[in-house]
């Protein structure tokens, strides 16, 4: 059943402080009679999850996840969603302004959209890592509303899609995306690529903004090396699944920094780890990543 409204799906584990900030922002939204709900998908053994009962003046569903994986958690949330528009944000992405829900709903319904995204603005990035904000899901394609080119990336941290379409194509792949401490990603990239092959373009609304808070312990050289290894691994696997050669954004970025920077050693080390990830990802992809869309969303929970 497709009931007009918005289902906001947030998956969380041990991030109570940031999650409270996200929910507080949603609670302050100007709703204008727009029906919406929030679905929290929480890891079953999360010992740090506080009680949110009766704290907010919007419908809040809490779903406990028995298995692991971000993609699986998002898909589980969809199966509990009441409304026709699905909105995925992370537990550390905070809607900016009081009209986020209003802007989202009006843009999606007025333009009769299937898929939409908006800005993801990264905070807490020091100068050493400023060139690599995109690895922390900094996403800003400009200040003009537009349909993005086919197979353009739309971040899972701020991803809006019609529920019927999402379920029809099988949801997020559970063999991609974060899993415990493994920094595998690409479930949003692969989904964006597949939508492009179905002649579906993502609409970008610049007035739709979220602020992505970055944990301070991630702003280290060790984490950046680990992140780039898994980005290389992810890029080659998504390219293999999607049969595309377009997953070269990170590679081209690092190479450009090597040529432009007066001290390129830093970027060369990062490129080495990224390249190792690509090599290992290639070997893994040809052996294990053979599942093709479309498939049932029930296979991915």
What would you say about this model in short?
The protein is of the alpha/beta class and 301 residues long.
Q: Can you describe what's shown?
A:
There is one protein chain. The chain is an alpha/beta fold and 301 residues long. The chain has a single domain (3-214), classed as Spore Coat Polysaccharide Biosynthesis Protein SpsA, Chain A, CATH 3.90.550.10. The protein is built from eight helices and nine strands. Strands 1, 2, 3, 4, 5, 6, 7, 8 and 9 form a nine-stranded mixed beta sheet that branches. Helix 1 (16-27) links the parallel strand 1 and strand 2 (36-43). Helix 5 runs parallel beside helix 6 and helix 7 (249-260) runs antiparallel to helix 8. The protein is globular. The two termini are 20 Å apart. 40% of the residues are buried.
Question: What is the topology?
Answer:
Blueprint: E1 3-12, H1 16-27, E2 36-43, E3 60-65, H2 70-79, E4 83-90, E5 93-95, H3 100-110, E6 115-122, E7 146-147, E8 158-162, H4 163-169, H5 187-197, E9 203-212, H6 221-242, H7 249-260, H8 265-288
Parallel strand pairs: 1-2, 1-4, 2-3, 6-9
Antiparallel strand pairs: 4-8, 5-9, 6-8, 7-9
Helix pairs in contact: 5-6, 6-8, 7-8
């Amino acid at each position: 059943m497709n009931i007009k409204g918005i289902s906001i799906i947030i998956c969380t584990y041990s991030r109570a402080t940031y999650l409270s900030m996200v929910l507080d922002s949603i609670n302050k939204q100007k709703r204008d009679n727009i029906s919406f709900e929030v679905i929290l998908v929480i890891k079953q053994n999360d010992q740090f999850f506080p009680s949110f009962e009766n704290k907010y003046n919007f419908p809040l569903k809490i779903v406990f996840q028995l298995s692991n994986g971000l993609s699986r958690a998002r898909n589980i949330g969809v199966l509990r969603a009441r409304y026709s528009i699905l909105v995925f944000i992370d537990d550390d992405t905070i809607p900016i302004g009081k009209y986020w829900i209003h802007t989202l709903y009006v843009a999606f319904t007025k333009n009769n959209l299937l898929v939409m995204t908006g800005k993801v603005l990264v905070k807490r990035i020091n100068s050493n890592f400023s060139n690599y904000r995109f690895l922390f899901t900094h996403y800003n394609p400009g200040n003009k509303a537009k349909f993005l080119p086919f197979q353009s990336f739309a971040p899972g941290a701020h991803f809006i899609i019609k529920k019927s379409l999402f379920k029809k194509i099988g949801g997020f792949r559970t063999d991609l995306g974060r899993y415990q401490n493994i920094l595998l990603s690409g479930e949003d990239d692969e989904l964006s690529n597949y939508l492009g092959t179905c002649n579906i373009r993502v609409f970008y609304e610049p007035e739709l903004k979220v602020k992505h808070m970055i944990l301070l312990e991630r702003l280290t050289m060790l984490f950046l090396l680990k992140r780039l290894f898994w980005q290389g691994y992810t890029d080659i696997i998504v390219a293999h699944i999607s049969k595309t050669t377009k997953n070269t954004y990170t590679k081209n970025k690092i190479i450009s920094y090597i040529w432009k920077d007066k001290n390129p050693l830093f970027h060369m080390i990062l490129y080495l780890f990224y390249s190792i990830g690509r090599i290992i990802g290639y070997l893994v992809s040809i052996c294990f990543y053979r599942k093709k869309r479309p498939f049932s969303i029930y296979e991915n929970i």
